[in-house]
Write a structure and sequence with these properties.
About 45% of the residues lie in helices and about 0% in strands. With about 130 residues, it is mostly helical. It has one domain: Cytochrome Bc1 Complex, Chain D, domain 2. The N and C termini lie far apart (about 70 Å). About 20% of the residues are buried.
């Protein structure tokens, strides 16, 4: 009896682990120049109207929004919902933010959403002052 119970428990754990991608556990793909380029195109088409072409939160549609859109020019660790974690940025893109104009973008493929993540987290890096030698 005990052996059967342990076999059922082990099989259940294996079953749940094998379906973890379907349960919202997503593994981020490797950041590549191709993904960044795809993210740039997606951002320009879908995000820039609110977040601005420069990622400053001052897009033409975003000027009228309350609360205003996120600026991506701050370090990732200072973003309200991400706390420095790109997976949380992915989650915001996927699920949106309740009571804001940030809608869910789950109709985009997982790769497209990761492309957006990698692109928007690059904004503060492009604003960093040059390193002194």
């Amino acid at each position: 009896m005990k052996k059967s119970l342990w076999m059922i428990i082990a099989a259940s754990i294996f079953f749940l682990c094998s379906f973890s991608p379907l349960l919202g556990q997503t593994k981020s793909p490797k950041k590549t120049p191709e993904l960044l380029n795809q993210g740039k195109k997606l951002y320009e088409q879908n995000c820039a109207p609110c977040h601005g072409a420069k990622g400053d939160g001052k897009g033409p549609a975003g000027l009228a929004l309350k609360p205003p859109p996120r600026t991506f020019n701050l370090p990732l660790s200072q973003w309200t919902y991400s706390k420095g974690d790109p997976k949380k940025v992915f989650e915001v893109i996927t699920k949106g933010i309740p009571n804001t104009a940030m809608v869910k973008w789950d109709h985009l493929s997982e790769q497209e959403r990761w492309a957006l993540v990698y692109y928007v987290v690059e904004f503060p890096a492009s604003k960093a002052p040059p390193k002194k030698k």
